[in-house]
From TrEMBL:
<feature type="transmembrane region" description="Helical">
    <location>
        <begin position="255"/>
        <end position="274"/>
    </location>
</feature>
<keyword id="KW-0812">Transmembrane</keyword>
<feature type="transmembrane region" description="Helical">
    <location>
        <begin position="225"/>
        <end position="243"/>
    </location>
</feature>
<dbReference type="Pfam" id="PF03547">
    <property type="entry name" value="Mem_trans"/>
</dbReference>
<feature type="transmembrane region" description="Helical">
    <location>
        <begin position="367"/>
        <end position="385"/>
    </location>
</feature>
<dbReference type="InterPro" id="IPR004776">
    <property type="entry name" value="Mem_transp_PIN-like"/>
</dbReference>
<feature type="transmembrane region" description="Helical">
    <location>
        <begin position="190"/>
        <end position="213"/>
    </location>
</feature>
<dbReference type="InterPro" id="IPR051832">
    <property type="entry name" value="mTOR-Rac_regulators"/>
</dbReference>
<feature type="transmembrane region" description="Helical">
    <location>
        <begin position="294"/>
        <end position="315"/>
    </location>
</feature>
<feature type="transmembrane region" description="Helical">
    <location>
        <begin position="146"/>
        <end position="169"/>
    </location>
</feature>
<dbReference type="GO" id="GO:0055085">
    <property type="term" value="P:transmembrane transport"/>
</dbReference>
<feature type="transmembrane region" description="Helical">
    <location>
        <begin position="327"/>
        <end position="347"/>
    </location>
</feature>
<protein>
    <submittedName>
        <fullName>G protein-coupled receptor 155</fullName>
    </submittedName>
</protein>
<feature type="transmembrane region" description="Helical">
    <location>
        <begin position="23"/>
        <end position="41"/>
    </location>
</feature>
<feature type="transmembrane region" description="Helical">
    <location>
        <begin position="422"/>
        <end position="440"/>
    </location>
</feature>
<feature type="transmembrane region" description="Helical">
    <location>
        <begin position="447"/>
        <end position="464"/>
    </location>
</feature>
<feature type="transmembrane region" description="Helical">
    <location>
        <begin position="53"/>
        <end position="71"/>
    </location>
</feature>
Length: 701
């Protein structure tokens, strides 16, 4: 942080390039109208049919009028084409990354539909309805020409990127259609028709032609008409967006959480960072003030939420609606605080480095104290439930221990930096960063969890030179050498974690196919012996030969195992075998990867920018919250055990709330016959059914 203190002083005292005063009212206006539309649809003031009519008005009349009007008066001589190229390159890069990763990870049944819709989700922004009011509120006084880029960026990406996604969706339809009557030429024609019938693309082309024909001036007889239609777009589009959100969260499934988290990360974190870097790389010929302002504007543009048209595409193809539509809703509301925080930091006229350092240290200290309590709770749950004896949970316990040491190390660092005891600072640094590196490489395994962090910290101690400032941040205690080592560790961890998740997905798909093939073969082989078995058992019973009772018991047990009663055995066996909770571990790994990506972006940003700027402060705050708040994620996933915490607490609360009498009534409400049946089955038939089930599995395999 000492280096940060020197480089941030100049960048934080420059004049702001936007006005923050109108940002909060603009956000309140936009999201207030969205909520009004949502509640209007929720309480059925406006039906789905009426909402469809409003959507047709917005897309057929209001939006085309707005686009035509602004494209005609646009002055192309003042357009920064390098900036447009930078945004386009960033979108293409994110589109390709999401598309390739989807093709590698997704299952073969719906691989192409996901590879078509997911990249569109990650790159297409809600530019006109939500983005334009935000940009107008921020830049109308300082850089009014930035408003025209909204009308140029959207159609270019729609014409270049969306057709690729539509082609993948058409390939998916072609695979699902067994007749294969549609030719490739017809498929390409349908894709091009769908692109050019989009009002954004069509009216931009017409508007550009009108720009040269009318010489950037709208005739009087057309001006009032276009003003009336275009002025109705913003409110009606936002209201319609709220209407489209009704009922979308219900489509959300448990297996969709992972995809939605990754898509939102790609849209709200990866795209803004890449957009900013592309502007700094390709558009460096401007003055320093304009150069910084454009890069910040590119970052804000990337934070705009996903356009609702992506959900329309998903419904048209009837593909991935359970992921795209809830993801669009969540993405829209998550983007609001990110936009506000980004714009707020960019408009701070001055921020002294010592105040910034103090704020970061205080946030780290406060989060570490709270996180330590939740981590101790999560460790206690792991130990009491005896899950630490299983293989996946063994790694999780190691991660929890490392996170505990990170919190303890940060608490110690907060106090040791207030003193001049250099040896104490070095010792606390060893504890803190050995633990922090252990959390970074958690996906590698238990062997590397201790040895590699100790090796890296040892190399830093031998080759590096600690900072002599007492108020130095732990992230910069050994200067650039520490930042480089952290970046290398993070990059390797992200790569290994990604490959591990990819291999896990492939193995699960192969196991599913093998089980399906085995079941299809065994169903034909076992059916005839089972019928023969049943006839022999019937003959044995009718002839009343010795062993009749045993045969009858065997037949009854088989009947029970094919009925719903055997679900009791299956549930009990699952509890006894202890669920490995692979889904929870995958979710934990994905959330940690998001934090790793933010940390490696912070390291690279620091290494390649002499003046990181205010957006770096936002990223640094996010990294601090992630590094010392990982325990919240672990607690949310593993700290609330169902059988150990939730169900006992629920029963206890019901007992305290309703009293003993109602609890006794609820218990007696269960039918005695059902209780007797369950007791008889567990006492007399469970073990025999389990043995017969094992025998049948051996025969079929």
């Amino acid at each position: 942080m000492a280096g940060l203190a020197t480089t941030m002083n100049s960048s934080m005292t420059s004049a702001p390039s936007m006005s923050i005063d109108r940002l909060f009212p603009a956000l309140l206006e936009c999201f207030g109208i969205i909520l009004c539309g949502y509640f209007a649809g929720r309480i059925n003031i406006i039906t789905s049919t009426q909402a469809k009519g409003l959507g047709n008005f917005v897309s057929t009349f209001a939006l085309p009028a707005l686009l035509f009007k602004n494209m005609v008066v646009l002055d192309f001589t003042h357009v920064n084409w390098n900036f447009l190229l930078s945004i386009l390159v960033a979108k293409v890069a994110v589109f390709i990354i999401v598309c390739i990763l989807t093709l590698l990870v997704a299952s073969p049944e719906n691989r192409f539909s996901k590879a078509g819709l997911f990249p569109i989700f990650a790159t297409q922004s809600n530019d006109f309805a939500l983005g334009y009011p935000i940009v107008e509120a921020l830049y109308i006084d300082t850089y009014p020409e930035y408003l025209q880029y909204i009308y140029l960026v959207a159609p270019v990406s729609l014409m270049l990127l969306n057709p690729i996604g539509f082609i993948f969706c058409e390939i998916q339809k072609w695979k699902e259609n067994t007749t294969h009557q549609q030719s490739k030429l017809k498929t390409i024609g349908l894709v091009l028709f769908q692109v050019f019938k989009n009002p954004i693309v069509f009216m931009v082309i017409v508007g550009i032609c009108g720009n040269f024909i009318l010489k950037q001036k709208i005739p009087v007889f057309m001006g009032e008409f276009l003003d009336g239609l275009s002025s109705s777009f913003s409110g009606s589009a936002l209201f319609y967006l709220g209407l489209t959100m009704v009922g979308q969260i219900k489509k959300l499934k448990k297996n969709s959480f992972v995809a939605i988290i990754l898509l939102i990360t790609a849209k709200l974190l990866v795209l803004p960072l890449i957009s900013r870097e592309m502007v700094e790389l390709l558009d460096n010929g401007n003055t320093e003030a304009n150069y910084t302002s454009l890069s910040n504007y590119a970052f804000l543009y990337g934070v705009f939420p996903t356009a609702p048209s992506v959900a329309i595409f998903a419904s048209q193809y009837n593909m991935e609606m359970e992921i795209v539509t809830p993801g669009m809703v969540i993405n829209t509301f998550v983007s609001a605080p990110i936009m506000y925080m980004s714009a707020w930091l960019l408009t701070i006229p001055s921020m002294h480095a010592k105040l910034l350092l103090s704020a970061l240290q205080s946030v780290s200290f406060d989060i570490s104290i709270v996180t330590l309590f939740f981590l101790i709770w999560s460790l206690a749950v792991m130990l009491l439930s005896k899950k630490f004896k299983q293989m996946p949970h063994l790694f999780t316990v190691n991660l929890l221990l490392a996170q505990c040491m990170v919190s303890v190390g940060m608490i110690m660092w907060y106090f040791i930096t207030k003193q001049t005891y250099r040896l104490g600072q070095v010792l606390v640094f060893i504890v803190l960063y050995s633990s922090l590196y252990s959390t970074y490489i958690w996906t590698v395994g238990t062997f590397c969890l201790v040895r590699i962090p100790a090796l890296i910290v040892g190399i830093l101690l031998i080759t590096g030179h600690p900072n002599t400032r007492n108020d130095c941040d732990s992230a910069f205690f050994y200067g650039n050498a520490q930042v480089i080592s952290t970046a290398v560790v993070l990059s390797c961890s992200i790569l290994i974690a990604g490959l591990s998740l990819m291999c896990l997905s492939r193995n699960r798909q192969q196991n599913t196919y093998q089980i399906l093939e085995r079941n299809s073969v065994s169903s034909n082989v076992v059916e005839e012996p089972m019928l023969k078995d049943q006839s022999e058992n019937v003959v044995t019973v009718n002839n009343e030969q010795p062993g009749t009772e045993l045969v009858v018991e065997k037949e009854q047990c088989r009947t029970l195992c094919t009925s719903e009663n055997c679900m009791l055995v299956q549930e009990e066996q699952l509890l006894q075998n202890a669920d490995p909770q692979l889904g929870r571990h995958v979710l934990l790994c994905l959330l940690l990867i998001i934090g790793l990506f933010a940390n490696v972006s912070s390291c690279l940003w620091w290494l390649f920018n002499h003046e990181p700027g205010r957006l770096y402060v936002e990223l640094q705050f996010f990294c601090v919250i992630f590094n010392f708040g990982q325990g919240f994620i672990s607690f949310g996933i593993f700290g609330l055990d169902k059988h150990l915490i939730i169900l006992p607490c629920k029963k206890r609360l019901e007992f305290l709330w309703h009293g003993r009498d109602i609890a006794a009534q609820n218990d007696s409400a269960i039918r005695e016959e059902m209780k007797m049946t369950c007791q008889q089955f567990v006492q007399y038939h469970k073990n025999q059914c389990a043995k017969n089930a094992d025998v049948r599995v051996d025969l079929t395999s």
